[in-house]
């Protein structure tokens, strides 16, 4: 015979009981709610990208010429009025503001908002902008001009202040910051034939769909449709602001025509000069860069560090592997004294790295270093290339995460390179390298420990001197070696530290140019 408590429970769970009716109604609503939100979603963007790929490419129209002729300062003077932010009201974490077309942003993009009620195109509003010194242009601007892109705000550093956290503007470029950081390097949706003689192709995001976030949402979802002469694509971005701002990316790519080099998850940055390069006589700063090295974790777990360079000619480097674990462009030097720039604050530029989701198979991380004479252009690009290249009739499905942070991944995994310097060797005709390694694992070694440096190359290395010394300032160890430079073709150097049978550092690698 059931107890009194059992009878009460059965009575409450009876379908006719009012409490049960309310719970059943709520359960039905919760079951239907995702379906309502997903009335628009990733599959819709994939279908649009596939349909575009089946048709000849038609570039989106350009904005009027008078807007394209605006210089940088005149275009920057056109500012969005914050009171028109899309979700600017108490209790909402996310705000969105829009970019005005003009100057290099010569093709407007379509922006849509979607929620449980459907998809709503966002019309262009002139009165949402303060045109400043360009106010005389207002009457000439078409009422249906469109926007150049958008930026997302979130209380990143203080709960009562909205900070810009990510921006999408120009071709397929986007860039993000983390708590305490300032804008620096960028990411792109795709890189096509970068650095090849055929010339680079820049596909663009031609339409966006922004999911209206809930009042207390801490993530935001954005869909994008990519289009270019040879490739279309559907993208989903899930943005997680924080100490490390994560952007989860999912993409499906379709080729109209064969692409020689399809660059997946590209990162692009600026490197003018650093500690291993001579400072221009007219500049007071010791270093000028948004990133100072390429960091990789191979499929076998090996960690590599390649300091960036700005040489006299284009340099292309390939790091072949299977199923990469991580690659990124990092800003390791966080010392203001290295830059002395009160405006640019390069020590606060974030690092960014890509973490693949799933197995990416065989291929290589490609590093492109383009010569530059100033700090105004991004001249460094790093991305993943599938090898062999995917066939034209085979859609490419890819997923990865991008982390943006003042911290860096695997900082405590072992000794890491914190400095690379070059000088003439004591022996005539030689060059001397000083590579500093530091980190908790190295600091824990006994100061009298026997630490050895292992130096090698992709071919014979003519080393004339080598030793390892403890660095009491950093708590790490300095590897110093001198060698005779190659005469006819570049030499790829590799070096790491060993303590007994244990490898106690990441692998430093360097592309040494032949003597001129």
DSSP strand content: 35-45%
Structural class: mainly beta
In angstroms, what is the radius of gyration?
27 Å
State the name of the first-level CATH class of the largest domain. Answer: Mainly Beta
The name CATH uses for the topology of the largest domain is: Beta-galactosidase, Chain A, domain 5
Number of domains: 3
Low-confidence stretches: 1-38
* Main β-sheet description: 15 strands, mixed
In the CATH hierarchy, the architecture of the largest domain is: Distorted Sandwich
Write up this protein:
The chain is mostly beta strands. The chain has three domains: 4-37, no CATH class; 65-405, Beta-galactosidase, Chain A, domain 5 (Distorted Sandwich), CATH 2.70.98; 416-512, Immunoglobulin-like (Sandwich). The chain is 11% helix and 41% strand. The chain contains six helices and 33 strands. It has helices at residues 4-13, 18-37, 42-53, 65-68, 72-76, 440-443, and strands spanning 79-80, 95-99, 110-115, 118-121, 129-130, 149-158, 161-169, 173-176, 186-188, 190-192, 204-211, 220-227, 231-240, 244-255, 262-269, 271-273, 288-289, 293-297, 303-307, 315-322, 326-330, 351-356, 362-369, 380-386, 396-405, 416-424, 431-438, 451-457, 463-471, 476-483, 491-499, 502-503, 507-512. The strands form five sheets. It has a 15-stranded mixed β-sheet that branches. Strands 2, 6, 7, 8, 9, 10, 15, 20, 23 and 24 form a ten-stranded antiparallel β-sheet that branches. It has a four-stranded antiparallel β-sheet with strand order 26-27-30-29. A hairpin with an 8-residue loop joins strand 11 and strand 12.
């Amino acid at each position: 015979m059931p107890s009194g408590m059992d009878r009460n429970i059965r009575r409450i769970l009876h379908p006719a009981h009012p409490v049960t009716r309310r719970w059943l109604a709520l359960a039905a609503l919760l079951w239907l709610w995702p379906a309502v939100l997903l009335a628009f979603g990733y599959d819709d963007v994939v279908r649009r990208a596939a349909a575009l790929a089946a048709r000849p490419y038609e570039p989106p129209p350009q904005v009027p010429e008078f807007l394209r002729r605006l210089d940088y300062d005149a275009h920057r003077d056109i500012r969005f009025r914050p009171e028109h932010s899309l979700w600017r009201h108490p209790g909402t974490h996310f705000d969105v503001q829009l970019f005005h077309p003009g100057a290099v942003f010569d093709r407007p993009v379509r922006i849509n908002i979607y929620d449980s009620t459907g998809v709503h195109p966002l019309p262009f509003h002139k009165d949402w902008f303060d045109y400043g010194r360009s106010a005389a242009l207002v009457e000439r601007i078409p009422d249906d001009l469109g926007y150049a892109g958008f930026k997302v705000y979130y209380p990143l550093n203080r709960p009562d202040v909205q900070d810009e956290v990510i921006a999408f503007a120009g071709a397929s470029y986007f860039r993000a910051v983390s708590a305490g950081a300032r804008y620096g390097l960028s990411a792109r949706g795709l890189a096509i034939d970068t650095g090849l003689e055929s010339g680079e192709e820049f596909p663009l995001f031609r339409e966006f769909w922004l999911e209206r976030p809930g009042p207390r949402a801490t993530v935001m979802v954005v869909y994008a449709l990519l289009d270019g002469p040879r490739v279309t694509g559907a993208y989903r971005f899930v943005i997680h602001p924080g100490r490390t701002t994560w952007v989860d990316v999912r993409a499906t790519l379709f080729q109209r025509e064969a692409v020689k080099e399809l660059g997946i998850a590209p990162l692009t940055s600026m490197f003018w000069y650093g500690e291993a390069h001579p400072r221009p006589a007219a500049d007071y700063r010791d270093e000028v860069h948004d990133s100072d090295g390429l960091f990789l974790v191979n499929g076998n777990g090996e960690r590599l560090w390649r300091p960036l360079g700005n040489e006299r000619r284009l340099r292309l480097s390939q790091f072949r592997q299977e199923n990469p674990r991580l690659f990124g462009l990092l800003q390791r030097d966080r010392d203001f004294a290295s830059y002395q720039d009160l405006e640019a604050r390069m020590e606060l530029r974030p690092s960014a790295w890509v973490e693949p989701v799933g197995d990416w198979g065989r291929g290589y991380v490609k590093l492109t270093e383009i010569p530059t004479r100033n700090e105004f252009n991004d001249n460094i690009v790093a991305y993943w290339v599938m090898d062999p290249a995917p066939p034209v009739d085979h859609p490419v499905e890819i997923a990865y995460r991008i982390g943006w942070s003042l911290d860096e991944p695997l900082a405590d995994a072992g000794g890491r390179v914190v400095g690379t310097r070059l000088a003439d060797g004591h022996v005539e005709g030689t060059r001397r390298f000083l590579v500093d390694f530091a980190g908790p694992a190295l600091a824990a070694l006994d100061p009298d420990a026997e630490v050895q440096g292992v130096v090698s190359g992709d071919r014979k290395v003519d080393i004339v001197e080598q030793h390892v010394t403890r660095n009491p300032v950093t708590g790490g160890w300095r590897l110093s070696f001198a060698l005779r430079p190659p005469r006819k073709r570049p030499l790829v150097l590799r070096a790491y530290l060993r303590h007994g049978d244990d490898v106690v550092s990441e692998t430093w690698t360097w592309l040494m140019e032949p003597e001129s």
